[in-house]
């Protein structure tokens, strides 16, 4: 049966002045779709509006809605529902109090859809960029079974744990990359501005410069003459990488496969993917979602296309009657410990609990690997900085040392 289109009413901010039931002068700020709606809302609250005017913002920047915003929303809504606050009122409170205006607008749009007769799952489905299939499936299961507050709590816990592991992985990858980028920037500045000053000083010596110094001088000339070409090549390469990564499935598959083979970093990416698989499967199975349907969402939530391909194959095998543990074993991508825990869960009827234990174990493993990687990279980064910056300093002072020896 075709579903009716859901209209999301955009709300604006209005300043108002009026009198309360006792005749005292009051004023404030209220959000609403238009002036008439705000006046009606104020009258329901016992305020007689005298003047209502829309706030005009000349320069308004919209903040992007992040996965962290969705995680916070999940926890806040779960808390409100568990406290017995009705759904519409919970969305009103959470939406009005959110720090991100874009997220606040989204939540109030969901509330408007629910007030028009839609379910929470159907309302959230109108925002597929922010609420994935897993989120929608769990909310729908909660609404159908009458355990929405329990399922919202599971969603909130799931989101918080996945966000935590994502931040750990990003920390492991971003920190060394940022330091190395800064080192190259400092090196570029020295080659462009500092080395030419030394070169003009060396020209007055009237002696041959050391080979290492000449190499740095020639490199400085290249940077000064072709800096625009270097920027164009670097910028073009970054743009092409991002462009094709988003649009080419083959490139994404190659990047994810190569990433898993990197020393240390590959181990972090691998174990974080296993943890996401186990955590997602545990959450969905505990919510009563059928295994085959759950694997569809698990594949999308894995975060790695190599795992996604393997899980999709496993889903077909499970749909044909094969046990999940055998499908995992045949995929040759999951660790033996995870396969054995799933086997125990299937035999004992506690698959969700066993998967949760697997997720806890590998999340701790990722934490330990990230800490170890950070400790390992610190001396390596210092060595890179020493070679780049220290090498330039030595190259510039070699002629001075040579001149001193000649004197």
UniProtKB/TrEMBL annotation:
Alphabetical list of InterPro entries matching this protein: GspF/PilC, T2SS_GspF/T4SS_PilC_CS, T2SS_GspF_dom, T2SS_GspF_sf
UniProt subcellular location: Cell inner membrane
Segments passing through the bilayer: 173-195, 226-244, 381-401
GO biological process, one term: protein secretion by the type II secretion system
Chief subcellular location: membrane
CC per GO annotation: plasma membrane
Source organism of the structure: Panacagrimonas perspica
Name recorded for this polypeptide: Type II secretion system protein F (GspF)
Taxonomic lineage: Bacteria, Pseudomonadati, Pseudomonadota, Gammaproteobacteria, Nevskiales
Lipid bilayer topology: Multi-pass membrane protein
Keywords: Cell inner membrane, Cell membrane, Membrane, Transmembrane, Transmembrane helix, Transport
Entries under PROSITE patterns matching the protein: T2SP_F
Membership in a protein family: Belongs to the GSP F family.
Residue ranges constituting the Type II secretion system protein GspF domain according to the UniProt record: 73-196, 277-399
């Amino acid at each position: 049966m075709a579903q009716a289109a859901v209209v999301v009413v955009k709300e604006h901010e209005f300043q108002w002045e009026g009198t309360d039931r006792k005749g005292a002068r009051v004023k404030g700020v209220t959000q609403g779709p238009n002036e008439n709606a705000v006046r009606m809302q104020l009258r329901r609250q016992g305020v007689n509006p005298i003047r209502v005017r829309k706030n005009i913002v000349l320069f308004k920047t919209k903040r992007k809605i992040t996965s962290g915003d969705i995680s916070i929303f999940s926890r806040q809504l779960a808390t409100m529902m568990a406290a017995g606050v009705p759904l519409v009122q919970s969305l009103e409170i959470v939406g009005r109090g959110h720090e991100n205006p874009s997220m606040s607008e989204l939540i109030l749009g969901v509330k408007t859809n629910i007030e028009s007769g839609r379910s929470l799952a159907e309302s959230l489905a109108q925002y597929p960029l922010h609420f994935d299939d897993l989120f929608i499936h769990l909310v729908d299961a909660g609404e159908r079974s009458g355990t929405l507050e329990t399922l919202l709590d599971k969603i909130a816990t799931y989101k918080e744990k996945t966000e935590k592991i994502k931040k750990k992985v990003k920390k492991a990858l971003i920190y060394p990359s940022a330091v190395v980028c800064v080192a190259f920037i400092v090196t570029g500045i020295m080659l462009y501005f500092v080395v030419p000053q030394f070169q003009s000083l060396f020209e007055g010596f009237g002696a041959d410069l050391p080979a290492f110094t000449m190499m740095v001088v020639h490199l400085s000339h290249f940077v000064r003459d072709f800096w625009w070409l270097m920027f164009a090549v670097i910028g073009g390469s970054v743009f092409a990488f991002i462009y094709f990564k988003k649009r080419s499935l083959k490139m994404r598959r190659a990047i994810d496969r190569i990433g898993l083979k990197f020393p240390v970093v590959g181990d972090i990416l691998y174990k974080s993917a296993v943890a996401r698989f186990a955590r997602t499967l545990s959450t969905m199975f505990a919510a009563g979602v059928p295994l085959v349907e759950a694997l569809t969402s698990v594949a999308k939530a894995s975060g790695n296309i190599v795992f996604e391909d393997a899980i999709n194959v496993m889903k077909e095998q499970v749909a044909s009657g094969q046990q999940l543990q055998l499908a995992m074993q045949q995929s040759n991508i999951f660790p033996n410990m995870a396969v054995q825990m799933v086997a125990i869960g299937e035999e004992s009827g506690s698959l969700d609990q066993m998967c949760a234990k697997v997720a806890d174990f590998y999340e701790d493993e990722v934490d330990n690997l990230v800490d170890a990687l950070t400790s390992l990279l610190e001396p390596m980064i210092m060595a890179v900085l020493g070679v780049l910056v220290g090498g330039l300093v030595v190259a510039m002072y070699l002629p001075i040392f040579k001149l001193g020896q000649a004197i």
